[in-house]
Write a structure and sequence with these properties.
Layout lengths: L6 H8 L3 H8 L7 H14 L5 H8 L4 E6 L5 H16 L3 E6 L7 H10 L5 E4 L5 H7 L6 E4 L9 E5 L1 H14 L4 E6 L8 H10 L7 H8 E3 L4 H13 L6 E5 L2 H13 L8 E7 L2 H5 L6 E4 L2 H13 L7 E4 L2 E3 L5
Parallel strand pairs: 1-2, 1-3, 3-4, 4-5, 5-11, 6-7, 6-8, 8-9, 9-10
Antiparallel strand pairs: 10-12
Helix pairs in contact: 1-2, 1-3, 5-14, 8-9, 11-12
C-alpha cells in the first residue's frame, strides 16, 4: 500500500466523497451505517492516519501550541522543547516551533506566522519581553506562557526557575568553601529583566560585595552564553596575574564546560587553583570528562509539566510559578 495516503485516496477506494470520509473520521452521525463500515475497513486495511496537525490548524481546536524559542542550538532549550513535546503528545496536543536564532527583532515575524496558522496559545522562551513585544502580545497575553522570561507588566503567565535563588545558592556555597575570588559569566544584565540579571543580583546580595559597580566592571563578563566567547575570555584572564584560588561562576553548563576545557587545555589544576560552577543541570554536565561539572540544577520535568498545564487553562488560579533550584556536586567545586 502506498505511503502518505490522503483522505481523497480513501474516498476513491470507497467510491465516496472526501467529505464523507472526513465525517467518518470525525464520528459524525450524518453517514449511513454501511458507508461508515466500508470507510472504516478501508482505513484499517491501509493503516491511514489523519493529519491531526492540519485538522487542528483548520478547526482552531487548540490542539496546536505555538512555541517560540531563542535558539534551539542551546542544549537547555533543546531539552525544554523535548520535554514539552513529550508532555503535550500525552494529551493529544502538538507544537509548531519557531526558532528566532537569538534575534529578538524577528519575533514579530514568527508570532505573525503562528497567528496566521490559527494558533492562539503560545509558549515563549526568550531572554525578556521588549516594549514592542508588549504591544504585539497585548490582545492575547492571557494565552501566553513565558518560560524563564520576564516582563515589566505583571499579568503574564510565567513559569521559571528562581534565578535570584540560583545566585544566592552559588554565593552561599562559594562562601562555605571559603573561596573569596569569583568571576561571573552570563548574558545581558543591564535592563534588569533577564535571568542573568537576577542571578547576578542574587549573588551580589549574598556574597558581601561592598563595591558593586567596581565588581561588575571587573568581575562580570557578558559573553552571551556563548561557548567560544567564554573560552576566549578565560584564555585572556589566565594571562593576567589574578589572585587564586579563583572561581568561575558560569550561568549555564555549556559555558561552564568551556571554562573547564580552557583550564584543562592550559594544564591548570581544577579544584585546587581554579574552580568552576555551572547552572542548568543538563545531561552533558554529568558526563563531561575529565571533570563532572558542579552545577545548580533546574527541575526541568516539573517546570515543563506546569508550563503545559498553564498554557491550556482558561482561568488559572495562579499566574506565576517560580521553582527552586538544586545544587548538584561534581568535580569542579
Amino acid at each position: 500500500m502506498k505511503k502518505n495516503l490522503k483522505i481523497r485516496d480513501i474516498a476513491q477506494m470507497c467510491n465516496v466523497s472526501s467529505a464523507t470520509v472526513s465525517r467518518v473520521i470525525n464520528n459524525s452521525e450524518n453517514v449511513a451505517p454501511e458507508t461508515k463500515e466500508m470507510v472504516l475497513k478501508a482505513i484499517e486495511k491501509t493503516g491511514f492516519q489523519p493529519n491531526k496537525i492540519a485538522k487542528a490548524l483548520r478547526t482552531k481546536k487548540n490542539e496546536i501550541i505555538g512555541l517560540i524559542v531563542n535558539t534551539i542550538e542551546n542544549p537547555y532549550t533543546a531539552l525544554f522543547v523535548s520535554l514539552l513535546e513529550e508532555k503535550l503528545k500525552l494529551i493529544g496536543k502538538n507544537i509548531v516551533l519557531m526558532d528566532i536564532k537569538n534575534d529578538l527583532n524577528s519575533i514579530q515575524k514568527s508570532f505573525t506566522m503562528l497567528s496566521n496558522l490559527n494558533i492562539d496559545r503560545y509558549i515563549i522562551q526568550i531572554p525578556y519581553i521588549t516594549p514592542m513585544m508588549e504591544e504585539l502580545f497585548s490582545h492575547i497575553k492571557n494565552n501566553i506562557v513565558l518560560f524563564n522570561a520576564y516582563s515589566q507588566i505583571s499579568d503574564y503567565r510565567i513559569v521559571s526557575v528562581d534565578n535570584f535563588a540560583i545566585g544566592k545558592m552559588a554565593a552561599e556555597y562559594i562562601r562555605h568553601k571559603k573561596l573569596p575570588y569569583v568571576m561571573l559569566f552570563g548574558g545581558n544584565i543591564e535592563n534588569g529583566l533577564t535571568e542573568s540579571y537576577f542571578r547576578f543580583r542574587g549573588f551580589i546580595d549574598n556574597f558581601n560585595i561592598k563595591k558593586e559597580k567596581e565588581f561588575k566592571n571587573s568581575n562580570y563578563f557578558d559573553i552571551d552564553f556563548d561557548y567560544q566567547k567564554t573560552y576566549t575570555k578565560i584564555q585572556t584572564i589566565l594571562k593576567d596575574n589574578h589572585p587564586k584560588p579563583l572561581v568561575f561562576f558560569c550561568f549555564s553548563d555549556l559555558i561552564a564546560i568551556a571554562a573547564v576545557n580552557c583550564l584543562y587545555d592550559n594544564h591548570l589544576k581544577i579544584n585546587e587553583d581554579y574552580f568552576v560552577l555551572g547552572v542548568d543541570g543538563i545531561y552533558i554536565s554529568s558526563i563531561s570528562r575529565p571533570y563532572k561539572i558542579t552545577t545548580i540544577k533546574h527541575p526541568f520535568l516539573r517546570m515543563a509539566e506546569q508550563t503545559v498545564k498553564l498554557v491550556l487553562e482558561d482561568n488559572p488560579e495562579k499566574l506565576v510559578y517560580y521553582f527552586e533550584p538544586e545544587l548538584v556536586l561534581g568535580d569542579t567545586l
